[in-house]
Amino acid sequence: MTPVRFYRLSLLAPILLPLPFLPFGIGALLLFTLGFGGVQYAIFAAILYVAIGRLKSAESIQRLARWVPVLFIPFQAAGWLINCYFERLSNPALIGNWDPLLPFAAYILVAGYGYVGLVALTYHFAKSAGYIENNEL
Predict the structure, then answer these.
(1) 85-112 in b/e burial notation, b at 16+ Cβ within 10 A?
(2) What ranges in 11-132 are assigned the alpha helix state H?
(3) In angstroms, what CA-CA distances link 60 with 3, 12, 66?
């Protein structure tokens, strides 16, 4: 497997990882991540899929991976603001709700870097076991 294929497949981690943990309660928290930002993540993952394909080495993909949680925050904030806009259309008494954006950004960073760390660890073990080809693409 090439590093590009590995990192492209790793984009599925936020979708697939919560499923086995559902019976243990932690899955609910992980699914909250997907439910809260599923549409935004799908758009973001499609952009990352293309970007990963254009990078020339595993190191450059890993540099991108370190920034992914930070880069996702504007996508998540846009989704939140669009949702607030439509809620306000249905109920004009609602005010614009910017208050949760900072806590949600912190949550995105924690969850995002958790996934990034898991992917980096998996890549390291897969490469040392010989499942990943040379860094040169």
Answers:
(1) eeeeeeeeeeeeeeeeeeebbebbeebb
(2) 13-16, 26-54, 58-90, 101-128
(3) 10, 20, 10
d(CA 71, CA 30): 19
- What does the DSSP 8-state code read for residue 129? T
Identity at 4, one-letter amino acid code: V
Residue 137 confidence (pLDDT): 45
Output the pTM of the full model: 0.77
C-alpha to C-alpha distance for 27 and 86, rounded to whole angstroms: 29
Q: Which two tokens stand for residue 46?
A: 């499609």
- For residue 39, pLDDT beyond 70: yes
